[in-house]
Amino acid sequence: MPIARIVISCADRHGIVAAVSTCLRDAGANITQSDQYSTDPEGGRFFMRVEFQIGDDSLATLPASFASVAERLRMDFRLWRSGERKRVAVLVSRPEHCLLDLLWRWRRGELECDIPLVVSNHADLRADTEMFGVRYVHIPVEPDAKPAAERRLLEELGDEYDLIVLARYMQILSPDFLERAGAPIINIHHSFLPAFAGADPYRQARERGVKLIGATAHYVVEELDAGPIIEQDAARVTHRATAEQLEQIGRDIERTVLVRAVRWHLEDRVLVYGNRTVVFT
Questions:
Q1: What average pLDDT does the chain have?
Q2: Burial group, residue 257, by CB count within 10 angstroms (0-12, 13-18, 19+)
Q3: Is 225 one of the annotated active-site residues of the chain?
């Protein structure tokens, strides 16, 4: 029997878990994993993620039967069926470590998605990308022609992608692009946000004499490096480290943080509310 999952958010109230589990039981489903969280049991926001086994015929009728439960409890929900693979586009500049780690893990079957497209504002990584059988599109971004480059990028993306990943794409995307992209965007920032936002964070960190450096994966919003945070990690460093050594340590953190964030998003483990996230890991 295929595995499916359902992700729910709604105002917290009594009886939500019972209503969900009863609906799944009546549909012939067997729950294999369930996670839930409430921001406040008295009037907060409730989040739930449930994985279950169910027959094909029952799965076909589940959306209609669950919709009545969702309407009664005013739930937002999304249902995923086994075999539905999200389509991911990756944007990158010259740094290759995050891109190659994503492609390698995708080829190994560690990421529940398809990656048909990589777009870059430089031509440097074409051979590395095409080695994985992925189409590589070079869209230069000239300082005086950025709107035109974004229009071309939107044309390449169309409405075919469920997620866009910025794997060290060193361009600030305009509010117009973010509005028209039609998919969530995950960025890896080479700093432990909210500290050292913007450019050259490792040099900023060294100048401040930090003892920890890290990386942050977050959803992209209009305000630079201010979107809901999905994942972070850090490493301890000493005063002896140069900015270049900090950057080398940081690259390892960046790629692992990004792949965790992308994997959790693909598996519907990340739920956004306001500028925060609930991550069921």
A1: 92
A2: buried
A3: yes
